[in-house]
Amino acid sequence: MALFIMNAERAAAQPGKAPVDTVAGQTYKNPLPVSMGDPYVLSANGRYYMYGTGAGAKDGFVTYSSTDLVNWKFEGQIYHGNTNDSWCTGDFWAPEVYQVKDTFYLFYSAQWRDNPKGELENFRIGVAVSDKPTGPFKDMVNKPLFDPGYPIIDANVLFDTDGRVYLYYSRCCYKHPVQSEIADWAKNQGLYKEIEESWIYGIELKPDLTGTIGKAVLMLRPPITMKDKQSEWESRSVTDAEANRRWTEGSYMLKKGAVYYMMYSANHFGGKNYAVGYATSKSPLGPFIKSNNNPVLQKDTGEGGSVTGTGHNSVAYSVDGKQMFCVYHGRTTASGDERVVFIDRMEIRKDGSLVVHGPTTTPQPLP
């Protein structure tokens, strides 16, 4: 991406947006010239690596590399699935890569070949390994990481400070109708007979990442009552008649001091209402309490902007570690249905609140 050079002047800050300081003379502008969904950024070996859904990958995933979080170089396809001897057949989604000593672990979602009942959504999570962030990655074993008995997507891993490791994932909406006041409302309105929901679960992983320990624990789900403050924004796909589903997915866990922050996305990833909220806990397996400030990232069309469908984020840090960035996908009037990557500043304030300064489409200071 070409750098945008501005005169040394201070642009006015928009409500909810990071102030733009152009004294340094160099800025960048969203969206970045990378088309993918579910972007995840890894920092390794002095560079950043971005992984995501789509981006031209055929039955697998590609990666981009960068030294500054703004200018990205295409590095090619790093994982190939849907081979004659692989456990997975298609719908390769939401890759995340973690470095443990000299090994890189790729967690991803895909359709499981073992599908005797012919389920339309038969997703499971796999793990592949490589000695380089650019691959090639090969599956640790020719089967999913584990089978909870229902379709799952959107793996996210936390390496906690006590040495324990946790996996977070989303149970798919598929064949998961849930009774709630919003479901009753939709039925009374003649919109939908039932509302399916996806829920986020957490489970401990074995230290070598080859399997799980114990039973999965429910972390987050959509509100049951319409009086719940979260109900309005988490139900927009239903109230806007986009789908008979309420999603809780795309989790990203980070720890600040003794507090665990789980960022998550709600609503249909293909619609305008996709948005990000967060919840906090004193334990990696909850209970989690959703923030009263939710959503912390959403469309800006109501404010005259052009961005919709903001969600499924990861978090990256500047080279000096002093600045936090929310990396996410969205859509603009220009991109249409194509998901493109945004990167905006975020912070955890002294009062413990998490704030994302976005979406922005005006020039921003370089990281």
Description:
By secondary structure, this protein is mostly beta strands. The chain contains 3 helices and 27 strands. The protein has helices at 181-188, 231-234, 236-239; strands at residues 4-5, 10-11, 20-21, 26-28, 37-44, 47-53, 60-66, 73-80, 93-100, 103-111, 123-130, 138-139, 152-159, 165-171, 196-197, 199-205, 212-220, 245-246, 248-256, 259-266, 275-281, 289-290, 307-317, 324-332, 340-348, 354-356, 364-365. The protein has a 4-stranded antiparallel sheet, with no helix packed on it. A 4-stranded antiparallel sheet has the order 9-10-11-12, with no helix packed on it.
Largest sheet features: 4 strands, antiparallel
What quaternary form is this? single chain
Q: What is the helix/strand order?
A: EEEEEEEEEEEEEEHEEEHHEEEEEEEEEE
Structural class: mainly beta
Helix content: under 10%
Q: How much of the polypeptide forms β-strand, as a percent range? A: 35-45%
What's the mean pLDDT score? 93
Strand order within the widest beta sheet? 5-6-7-8
Which overall shape is indicated by the principal axes computed on the Cα atoms? globular
Total number of beta strands: 27
Question: How many distinct domains?
Answer: 1
What's the CATH H-level superfamily name? Glycosyl hydrolase domain, family 43
CATH topology-level name: Tachylectin-2, Chain A
Compute the gyration radius: what is it? 20 Å
Instruction: Indicate the CATH class.
Output: Mainly Beta
- Count up the helices: 3
Unreliable residue stretches: 1-24
CATH architectural label: 5 Propeller
